[in-house]
Amino acid sequence: MKLLRFGPVGKEKPGLLDSEGRLRDLSNHLNDVTPDVLSPSRLNQLSRLDPTTLPVAKGSPRLGIPVSGIGKIVGVGLNYGAHAAEAKMETAPEPLIFAKATTALCGPNDSVMIPKGSTATDHEVELAIVIGSKAQYVSEADAYDVVAGYAVINDISERDYQLNRGGQFFKGKSADTFAPLGPWLVTKDEIPTPQNLRLWLELNGDIRQDSTTAEMIAKIPYLISHISSVMTLMPGDVIATGTPEGVGMGRDPQDYLKPGDVMRLGVEGLGEQRQEVIAYKKAPE
């Protein structure tokens, strides 16, 4: 299944994408796509629905974050060797993990806003794992059992904040709109080989990132096992698994996002995102 949420910000409805690419309304069966919907039993119930019996959404509605009520976003840094090399950083024996604020979440095609005073806002296409069951000290052998599915995430980063303001990744990763997620959550049964998916990002029509999840240093089962050994993972939590080479920081000269830029990005089997980059503006109260 491809679960999604559609409609204006704060008024999204639950939905799914059918095999013909039509957006179907799940409102008669769900109030929302919440973490409790991601349990194996609930997903199994939803999978029995006949999509042709669901109303087709009218027009071309905005797509929201595919899961509401996400509790935390755990990022993985330097998980592709070529990206670590372009960043001139060494990989460590254990994965570098960090948090992104959930207020950074936005829809897959919403505008990305450069923070006030930013000089180094950068793009990072990544595979996101969405957790479906509570996970504590999960073994690598059992890691996929706690996965609900996968999604595309753009782990937008402000490099100056990340590297030069106390060396805190959290500062550079958490601005509003810095975590476009979606367009949908694809359940794990549809992605039998998540460790061999192409992921790519295009900036203003030029391919900047183009790699495969096979290049990850720490693979998905190890990441889930390791992260669940230092914190409890809950349904709805998101793990952003790292980005490949081709980010703006790694170019010579460095090339960061500016207002008017357009990003297109995707992960094989998980759909595409498109974001226009805009200058900072104060959010409405």
Helix and strand run: EEEHEHEEEEEEEHHEEEEHEEE
- Total number of distinct structural domains: 2
Query: What is the rounded Rg?
Result: 18 Å
Question: What is the assigned CATH homologous superfamily of the largest domain?
Answer: Fumarylacetoacetase-like, C-terminal domain
Please report the first level of CATH classification, the CATH class of the largest domain: Alpha Beta
Named CATH topology of the largest domain: Fumarylacetoacetate hydrolase, domain 2
Average pLDDT figure? 96
> Beta fraction of the residues?
25-35%
Form type = globular
How many angstroms does the end-to-end distance come to? Answer: 36 Å
Helical content stands at 10-25%
Question: Strands of the largest sheet, in order across it?
Answer: 3-2-1-13-10-9-16-4-5
Low-pLDDT parts are none
CATH architecture of the largest domain: Alpha-Beta Complex
- By secondary-structure content and strand pairing, the structural class works out as alpha+beta
Give a quick set of tags describing it.
single chain, 285 residues, alpha+beta, Fumarylacetoacetate hydrolase, domain 2, 2 domains, nine-stranded mixed sheet, five-stranded mixed sheet, 5 helices, 18 strands, 13% helix, 28% strand
Question: Overview of this structure, please?
Answer:
The protein is α+β, with helices and mostly antiparallel strands. The chain has a nine-stranded mixed beta sheet with strand order 3-2-1-13-10-9-16-4-5. Strands 7-18-17-14-15 form a five-stranded mixed beta sheet, with no helix packed on it. Strands 6-12 form a two-stranded parallel ribbon. β14 and β15 (206-212) form a beta hairpin. It has two domains: 2-53, no CATH class; 73-278, Fumarylacetoacetase-like, C-terminal domain (Fumarylacetoacetate hydrolase, domain 2, Alpha-Beta Complex), CATH 3.90.850.10. The radius of gyration is 18 Å and the shape is globular. The chain has helices at residues 40-47, 81-86, 159-164, 169-173, 220-230, and strands at 2-6, 13-17, 23-25, 73-77, 96-100, 105-106, 112-113, 121-122, 125-131, 147-154, 157-158, 179-180, 185-187, 198-203, 206-212, 238-240, 262-267, 271-278. The mean pLDDT is 96.
